[in-house]
Amino acid sequence: MTQKQNNKLMWLWERSTALFPSVYLHKSLKNSPKAALFVRNRVQEAVRVAAMPKRPYTVPIYVFSRPLYRDQTKAFETQMDLVNTVGESAALGASGVVMWGGTKDYNNKAACQSLSEYLSSTFNPYIANVTAAAMLCSNVLCQSHGRCVRKNYNSSEYLHLNPTYFSILRAGGRYIAVGLPTASDLNAWVENFTCQCYAGWSCAPELKRPTRIQVIK
């Protein structure tokens, strides 16, 4: 039904300069495989729509989400559900994720302290990991001229740094990933991801193995 409706809106997609699907999770989907499927299919439909106009490039996709589950202000998304939202979006080729919330979500000291603890313990380290992984994959596989995108959208392959060989450090108010990917990790990217070139650039999935420690800011 959604695809049929979107197919009738070509006039809109031809004039759009970006797409903004939302992937807000209800608490009933907490830590459920259905959460990944929900996000996967919403983002993949945006990917399909972005490719419908006949352009030499696809418009960027920015996925809207929030750190809290829907319809309540207490429970933050678990790390598994950050993978199900942010991780899915990155692996499918989204240009970014917009995480937001309303003032009613954090309208007292306890709520603000809870958010601060969540950001430090769970959210920020994961975002730093998946962001650095996407940057590294772009560099080693797509010549920094495109983003890594799943070959099979319905797989469960993600852009994550291997915690055995990478450390996420905090320095100067920002997060930095430091490490060197293994041959096995790089080969997994080659096997499971391809390249979507940035507008105005050409690229091809061709692995360039780094030989020095990577510092990804």
TrEMBL record:
Belongs to the glycosyl hydrolase 56 family. This is Hyaluronidase. The keyword Lyase does not apply. Pfam families: Glyco_hydro_56. GO terms for molecular function: hyalurononglucosaminidase activity. Its EC number is 3.2.1.35. GO terms for biological process: carbohydrate metabolic process; hyaluronan catabolic process. It comes from Nothobranchius furzeri (Turquoise killifish). Transmembrane segments: none annotated.
